């Protein structure tokens, strides 16, 4: 790279002087500043760190300079992500301004982006020539300044757009490689250190990275993060780190790469060992339950890992229902019940196991204990399990014995305590699944009769007719209509003629359309 000579005016100053000589009736200093910003030689500008004399509206936001050496700490890892965000933001601005033909802004934004990219390249290396591509954009952009040739501008616009796309793609790869290098150091610390403090610190850094999105989780998994964490969970001397390590594993397993790595190291067997070891701390068993909940989530497209899971399912299900029974707080119960809820979706054998383990009694008892079941999220897990168990004939007698119908009607009254969207959604799921469970159980005449005696029908009608009662949820409406029709089939005299005419007699879709278009003032 060239360095400006100390003797004679440097080239960037020469360019400015020539601009002033041709200016007529224009303030010389102002023209000098404009020329300095837009008509400089690219290479000299990089030497000067691309600092414009005047600050445009975006320059202040774009500045992000990190000094000092890069250490493997949470702050520095976050700093790398912030610096990457700055460059990504600048690239996004260039795309927008290129489309609008704002050539001066394209040029100035490219200068700033180039400065940031060069700084990152200097620290992390660049195998993809990001900086050279940025220089091309600056060069092409400078040629478009004050040029009104439409054909030329169209050609340059297409050329810059292609280069900009290449820069964006290669920059993402460069950041991924830089993060992978930092993550490798953290993983080596976990694998080689004997210090609980050092390992715990490295795990904390990994956990903080997982909070920045699935892309980072994929990088951690590919670099062996799951393997290293399970090595910790298999050593008694690090038992104090089990909960922390497993929480990180659960976060990484939000992506398929994490689950695949868990399968390769027999992670499910390790989870089963921790869950069934009652001498193990409750926090560690709760986090093991969280990993089970994560890898059995219906949202995952791949279910290959479930093959080995089935081999340990009896032990895991037994340990999870015991954890629900003994949970000391709502969070522990939530994690254990969420794992059970997911398990009941993919194998009917799990439902039969739960019935043999007296799960209905345990779960309904927990619902009466506000220390364990204190949020709509926990109730959502309980009613999910109940809905899946209600498919089995033998579940009916247990639900009646444990006063489960009464509990289902209470769940139909579930309302959010705040305006939180997640809580509102959880309440809708609770109402919907409670209605589904009631409909399934009401195939038994005794359950239908009990539900009618407990005034289930007026509540179901209210949910159908009043959108506010169901938070305008269509899924709750459909479930309540289905439950009403099942009860009406078993107890036809329990529904008034007008309700029968509108909610029972028509096709389900017609009743749905009628209720979904109702205003609350109708009630």
UniProtKB/TrEMBL annotation:
CDD domains xrefs: INSC_LBD
GO BP term, pick one: apical protein localization
Protein inscuteable homologue LGN-binding domain sequence ranges: 24-68
GO cellular component terms attached to this protein's record: apical cortex
GO molecular function, one term: cytoskeletal anchor activity
Residue ranges annotated for the Protein inscuteable homologue C-terminal domain, each copy included: 83-523
Family matches, as Pfam families: Insc_C (PF19427), INSC_LBD (PF16748)
PANTHER family: INSCUTEABLE, PROTEIN INSCUTEABLE HOMOLOG
Designated name of the protein: INSC spindle orientation adaptor protein
Gene coding for it: INSC
